[in-house]
Amino acid sequence: MPKKKLVVLSGAGISAESGIPTFRDAGGLWEGHDVMEVASPQGWKKNPALVLDFYNQRRKAAKQAQPNDAHKIVKRLEDYFDVTVITQNVDDLHEKAGSSHVIHLHGSLFQMRSSLDENLVYDIEGDIHLGDKCPKGSQLRPHIVWFGEAVPLITTAAEISIDSDVFIVVGTSLQVYPAAGLIEYLHRDTLKFLVDLNPPSVDYIKNLTIIADKASEGMRKVMEKLMEIFPN
Ligand code: OAD
Asked: Which residue's alpha carbon is nearest to atom 2 within ligand 1?
């Protein structure tokens, strides 16, 4: 029998226990920054040095962070399910935990791209400096989807989501579209779970189990429930 299809939609909350701050919680990243200054094409145009510095700092922090039990459980689910991770996170903690299929909806800290041609994408481990140019001569920028920009992978993500038997949402406030809309595409009978310390209101979603807990503990509970529902 082929394995059932399971999708994990993750957000900043899954990386919180790894020491990476979320965006909208108290003390979160957006509390200390003007979002439009560091995460929009307008901000980039106005002050690219500030934007580069912001993401250089994020990259440094992400490099030092280690996956926590929630990322590890997501990886372990591959023993039982055909798993795709759709993450809004730009860190690489799902990859560090060993997950095989990770879609980075909002880009990655470990890639940079030409600001002229979005198809010119390069790996990056260190800092991006003002003056670092792509082969076409334009300044290199973080490969991050900023506010007001298209989300190129959303169609792929939606197709995989619609096809899922199990859909787990973990650690996202579901405030940012189109990512937040993925849960609305699902079949009624797709088994759905939502893990969050402070779960967003999603009472319009059918067949959903809400687990109000931190990501590691919540994912442990989801795993336990899945093993009961799908004993092998
Ligand atoms: P948010 O900061 O909006 O939401 C984080 C969610 O994680 C909230 O619902 C918290 O309750 C929850 N949370 C916090 N700590 C947790 C923990 N230890 N365990 C479980 N849950 C916890 O982050 P996102 O929803 O990921 O986009 O934000 C979506 C997008 O907005 C981001 O990808 C980013 C941001 O602007 C870009 O930068 C393009």
From this structure: 23
Site to substitute for ligand 1 among 14, 182, 197, 222, most atoms within 8 A of C-beta: 197
Are 109 and 55 within 8 A, CB to CB?
yes
Burial track 205-217 (b if 16+ CB lie within 10 A, e otherwise): beebebbebbbbe
Instruction: Check if the beta carbon of residue 113 is closer than 8 Å to that of residue 145.
Output: no
- Could you report the per-residue pLDDT of 170-201, keeping only the tens digit for each? 999 999 999 999 999 899 999 999 999 999 99
pTM over 0.90: yes
Strand, coil or helix: 82: strand
Tokens of 49: 């040095």
Superfamily the domain 5-229 falls into: TPP-binding domain (3.40.50.1220)
Q: Which residue has the tokens 């959303």?
A: 154
